[in-house]
Every structure is written in structure tokens, then in C-alpha cells.
Amino acid sequence: MRIRICAVGRLRAGPERALCDDYLDRFAKTARPLGWGGAEVVEVEDRKGGGKAAEAVLLDKAVPAGAVLICLDERGRTLTSPDFAERLRGWADQGRADCAVVIGGADGIDPGLVERADLVLSFGKMVWPHMLARVMLAEQLYRAATILTGGPYHRV
């Protein structure tokens, strides 16, 4: 399974970018024994100020056809790291080749895109800036791969 992170906005060079890149690199190496590809980031930007609806069009174009769709939203489900790992494994075992995780802009994700999601996921009841949401997602992908491969990173 290949992972695509579809995010509104650009993550500039800096500590968040370095941390995100580090976790995605770790994920790619750890997920290889699972037969999974790495993770790529597709950044979209609505330069015309069309709001959530315009961002949704751009995000939708970034999602591969037939991909599992996960939307990050504060109103979504909270999962444990092992539960998230098992969800990913289940989709991969079903033959789903792609998984897209969508991170919206400052106003969130358009409801039409959220309604189509296979999973609406929350990192808790607090709102996180998109820069940190990306880092947290990258870390959770790496953690999921280590859980599924039996690595020592995740401890109960």
C-alpha cells in the first residue's frame, strides 16, 4: 500500500519540515517488509481564496482513484496507535493499493469530502496547526509500521 498525504498549504523549511521528513523516511524503511511503498506529500494551495470548497476540489484531485480516504478532523474518531495500525493493515490486506490522508486548511475540510471518507480521524479534541498535524501523522505512520513489523519503537 502506498500512502499519500494531501495537505493544504506549504510546509516551509524548518524544524517541523525536518521532523516530518525524518519520520516519513523512517516509515518508508520500516514499511518495506510489509510490502508497502513509502509516503509522499502532495501540497495544494488555493490562491484564489475560494475557501473550503475550492480546497476540496484541489485535495480531491490529489487523492488517487480508488484510494482509502482518511480525513483529519477534530470531530473525528480517536484511535489508539495499535488500532490505527490494524486499520491500515486491514485495508492493505483487502488489496487497497493506495491510502490518502487529507489535512485541511485553517477552516478545516469541506463537509462533502469528509462525508466520502473511509475514516475521519482526530488526534484529540484540541485543534492542531497543520504543520504539527503533519508531523503527528508522519510519526503515527512510522509507529504503525513498527507495530506491524514487531519493532521496539512502540511500547505498551
Account of the protein in words:
With 156 residues, this protein is an alpha/beta fold. The protein has a single domain (2-149), classed as SPOUT methyltransferase, trefoil knot domain (Alpha/beta knot). The chain has helices spanning 15-31, 51-62, 81-93, 111-115, 130-149; strands at 2-8, 39-44, 68-77, 98-103, 119-121. A five-stranded parallel β-sheet has the order 2-1-4-3-5. Strand 1, helix 1 and strand 2 (39-44) form a beta-alpha-beta unit. Helix 3 (81-93) crosses helix 5 (130-149). The protein is globular.
Structural category: alpha/beta
CATH superfamily: SPOUT methyltransferase, trefoil knot domain
- How much of the residues is beta strand, in percent? 15-25%
CATH architecture: 3-Layer(aba) Sandwich
Percent range for helical residues? 40-55%
What is the first-to-last residue Cα distance? 26 Å
Q: What global shape is seen?
A: globular
Q: Determine the number of helices (DSSP H or I, runs of at least 4 residues).
A: 5
Text of the CATH class: Alpha Beta
Low-confidence stretches: none
Spatial extent as radius of gyration: 15 Å
Number of strands: 5
What CATH calls the topology is Alpha/beta knot
Count of domain modules? 1
Provide the succession of SSEs.
EHEHEHEHEH
Characterize the largest beta sheet: strand count, sense, and whether it forms a barrel.
5 strands, parallel
Average pLDDT score: 95
